Amino acid sequence: MQLVNKPFILIRHGETSLNRDRLIGGHTDVPLTLKGRNQAKKIAPLMVNYQFDVVITSSLIRSQETADILFPKAPQIAIADLKERDWGDLEMKPQTQQIPYEETPPNGEPWSVFCQRIVSALNQILQRYERPVIVAHSGVFRVIRQLASGSPYGERVRNVEPFFICAGDENQSWKIVSLLQLEKEI
Fold first, then answer.
1. What region, left, alpha or beta, does residue 139 occupy, with left being phi > 0 and alpha being psi -120 to 50 degrees?
2. Three-state secondary structure readout of the chain
3. Residues 8, 165: contact at Cβ < 8 Å?
4. What is the full per-residue pLDDT of the chain (186 aa) written as tens digits?
5. How far apart are CA 104 and CA 44, in angstroms?
6. Contacts of 154 (CB under 8 A, 6+ apart)
């Protein structure tokens, strides 16, 4: 799997009740909590510093609500293939029951199928737009992490943390840079 070589910004949605309660969310469609809305409001002023030509969300309400707060005047395009992984019977179960990503959850989506779905959706976006902002899910970030490092494992991306994602040098295929960290360094 390869991703079109074009930079973009990826932002995970704000906190939901499932995040707060440490439950597996996946395809379960839940709105943001008050904290999740406030997280997006806190980050919104930072986003005015970045040029973009389109805001893309998944078709789940948590992504759309986050984008509404971050980019209130920008039109959005919802893409169903950017939805979080379908965790099947594990949805709404405690995160402690989550299985390794490479394993298929009972009645859920295999990791390889999820990765192909996400990469295909991202490639369609990157072929069409020059500077997209994508508001999606931690699973989407994990797919990009796997493309960049060969593994989906690592620290869970925080809610409403924006990342600049671009092609790396010959030693690293993709760079993932936290815009929050970048702002602190400037």
1. alpha
2. CCCCCCCEEEEECCCEHHHHCCECCCCCCCCECHHHHHHHHHHHHHHCCCCCCEEEEECCHHHHHHHHHHCCCCCEEEEHHHCCCCCHHHCCCEHHHCCCCCCCCCCCCCHHHHHHHHHHHHHHHHHHCCCEEEEECHHHHHHHHHHHHCCCCCCCCCCCCEEEEEECCCCCCEEEEEHHHHHHHC
3. yes
4. 788 989 999 999 999 999 999 999 999 999 999 999 999 999 999 999 898 999 999 999 999 999 999 999 999 999 999 999 999 999 999 999 999 999 999 999 999 999 999 999 999 999 999 999 999 999 999 999 999 889 999 999 999 999 999 876 655 578 899 998 876 665
5. 36
6. 145
Beta bridge partners of 176: 165
Locus of tokens 């840079």: 177
136, two tokens: 């999606």
Tell me the whole-structure pTM to 2 decimals. Answer: 0.94
CA–CA separation, 142 and 154 (whole Å): 8
The amino acid sitting at 162 is P
Contact 85, 109 (CB under 8 A): yes
- Round to whole Å and give the CA distance between 2 and 118: 11
Q: CA-to-CA distance for 7 and 25, rounded, in angstroms? A: 28
